[in-house]
Amino acid sequence: MASSSHPRPSNTFSSLSKRWREDLRLMRDRANSFTINSLPSTTFDDVDFVKNLRPKLSEFPKRTPKSSIRINLSAIRDAIVSEVEEDMDGILGFGEGNKRFSCSEFWNGDEQCYTDWEPIQAFKKQFRKNTEFLEKLKLSLSMCQEPQDSKEVRPLDASELLAYFVRQSGPFLDQLGVKRDICDKIVEGLYSKRKNKQLLHSFSAEESSVLGNGNVNDELDLRIASVLQSTGHRYDGGFWTDQAKHDLSDNQRHVAIVTTASLPWMTGTSVNPLFRAAYLSQSSKQKVTLVIPWLCRSDQERVYPSNISFTSPEEQEVYIRNWLEERIGFEAVFKISFYPAKFSKERRSIIAAGDISQFIPSRDADIAILEEPEHLNWYHHGKNWTKKFNHVIGVVHTNYLEYIKREKNGALQAFFVKHINNWVTRAYCHKVIRLSSATQDLPKSVICNVHGVSPKFLKIGEKIDADRELGQKPFTKGAYFLGKMVWAKGYKELISLLAKHKNDLDGFKLDVFGNGEDANEVQSTAKSLDLNINFQKGRDHAENSLHGYKVFINPSVSDVLCTATAEALAMGKFVVCADHPSNEFFRSFPNCLTYKTSEDFVAKVKEALENEPRLLTPEQRYQLSWDAATQRFMEYSELDRVVNGENSAAKSNNSGKLIRNSLSMPNLTELVDGGLAFAHYCITGNEFLRLCTGAIPGTRDYNKQHCEDLQLSPPQVENPIYGW
User: Signal peptide position in this chain (predicted)?
Assistant: First the structure.
């Protein structure tokens, strides 16, 4: 009966904890309904602990556009604790030995003191949850406030958007005949309006750093990127973008040099890429592979001089390495690979058979250097170079438009070839280097001479200079010309000049060395005009028989950068050449005599024959060397930045903040390049269209003889119809 008249302690505290939980729930609901901008006064009057906070609330400053209200929610929590403490001090006196606990002692005390009080533990747990809620509310409010040093980036205006659109429309405008400098002027005019507004409006520090005094294109890129970064936008690629590229597995980069010719054909596109491979391989930062064409026996007999031929790629590789080691004086460690090709008699050039990129393993597909990128890609039907490789560099060797204009219907052919060259170089290259301004102005191109001369020629020049200093006369012969005997290689200009000024150059004799398809016609023409020219077979420019000549004459205006001219200067000879963009690099050398008219040609020839060449300085010798050429190549191709792991697509504003253009904003150029590559792939895949554009029949894939020579699987196995 006694137990029924007096409630049990567990029931009592159960009802108390239930009432406390209800009170705390009401407090939490009020906290949730708490707003900064407006709160009814009755809400504060109903809560006693808020009355104690009134002085603090009144001390809040008035909100300004750049200020924020800071609410001390920790004080609210302490007020709740103090209110509960007053009500609970008398209740929480149920410890062992009737020990009384204050509220703070209760929350932080030893749990062993109240392990038997399950209702109290439940109340403590619930109270902690409410405290955590207040802390989270405080944190969320503090995150919402504006930092005092926030930097606002203004949105793009119409002139900036239009300037960016014109700049990205460069591929279309270029195909329509609008020159690049005109587009740059339009972009500069539109963007300058934005820079002028800087005098009238205040910009953020970041925005002001972007609007600097540098290149307009770079400033526009940084401006677009900064706006997109401020919005949190990130561009991860478009429809044509291939993110799955070669992933470096070691610390070395892999460089593949692909060219259109090989020794023993003594032409610039076989010699210069070979030297480039040798000098690039000297660095331990990259491994180098030289990829050259393999011709079947029948084509070798047409192309290679002195009836030289090879039965296997290994045999030709031995010949190439021996030739190279005789001229550079050091052992070059690089790999040589072959791709199947055929010789076009009509075009007088080698055309690839099949997809060249498939002969470069994916593990080595890192950096590609395309020697003559337009030539390599005229009929390229295969993987997009820019998708397979991380960085693709094109080096333009030949002025094809100049050669084509000399043919039948040359103007019409040159028109189409010009646009095709624009097409393929834009689609398949990241960077293009033109050896001189004599070449076609191609997209993404810069002008720089990245070729040098063999150390053998520099040693010959040093020996000749040493003999001259000792009082000897090493130059015992007069003038000579050396080059492939085709009309376009300067023979037409040479015969015309000599025929016009036969009387002015009375007694002048010229020795000419060369082989070529037009040899018989050139010799017969010179004989019919009774010119004093002694024709001889072609030979290596470094042969001893050529050391005694004092004057090298090169009237060609079709060359881009004549290697023979550089070699003659390196050997300390006079050079008489046309005042032409292809000879711009050589003008700084005192022994280079340029002429503008035929009368001037006669004067320069006489000047060279009557005087002695000047001695070259060490600086001038270095400028002709392959060491200097390799340094220029690394700089202008941005290969030094790629090898060192720097991102050329990332730019910094004046404040040093890095902005990645390629990952921050979409690029219309990438979309256009991808579309051009896809269209080119479709066209070159059709045999009828290939033949209409002048391709060699059957060059979309390699033939049976190539399979036997290179030990390849048939193309049907390598590229099944369902695999493309």
Answer: none
Cα separations (Å) of 703 from 361, 383, 509, 719?
Answer: 21, 19, 49, 13
Tell whether 363 and 261 lie within a shared domain: yes
Last residue of a domain, one of 598, 624, 650: 624
Do 409 and 284 sit in the same domain of this protein?
yes
pTM of the predicted model, to two decimals?
Answer: 0.65
Residue found by looking up tokens 């191609």 in the block: 442
391-396 β-sheet, strand order:
349-352, 335-344, 286-294, 253-258, 367-371, 391-396, 431-434, 445-447
Please check whether residue 516 is in contact with residue 489, taking contact to mean a CB–CB distance below 8 angstroms: yes
Distance CA 16, CA 29 (A): 20
Task: Considering only residues 134 and 377, tell me which one the structure prediction assigns the higher pLDDT.
Answer: 377
Chain segment 251-303, per-residue pLDDT in tens: 679 999 999 999 999 888 999 999 999 999 998 888 999 999 999 999 999 89
Alpha helices (H) along 548-636: 563-570, 598-610, 618-624, 626-636
What is the H or E stretch that residue 351 is in?
strand 349-352
pLDDT band at 66 (very low <50, low <70, confident <90, very high): very low
- Does the N-terminal peptide bond of residue 65 adopt cis geometry, omega within 30 degrees of 0? no
For the chain, percent of residues with pLDDT exceeding 70: 67
The pLDDT confidence band at residue 152, using thresholds 50, 70 and 90, is: low
Full domain range(s) for residue 364? 253-450+685-710
